[in-house]
Amino acid sequence: MGKRVTTRRRVPEGFRDAVGELEFWRDGVLGVRKRDGTLVEIPEESLAAAKVVAGGA
Predict the structure, then answer these.
(1) CB 44 within 8 A of CB 24
(2) Residue 33 and residue 23 in contact, taking contact as beta carbons nearer than 8 Å
(3) pLDDT tens, 12-26?
């Protein structure tokens, strides 16, 4: 938690990416807070890829 991550998840239209701070990972859901302040909740089963990236504003 607290690490900057980039994620790619499967959606019906293809793929969506989210980059931000990993706030939580519980009960099969990741919470990623994007730079604009929005929280993206990502079900584990939809993840195609994820990694920790260098942080910074």
Answers:
(1) no
(2) yes
(3) 999 999 999 999 999
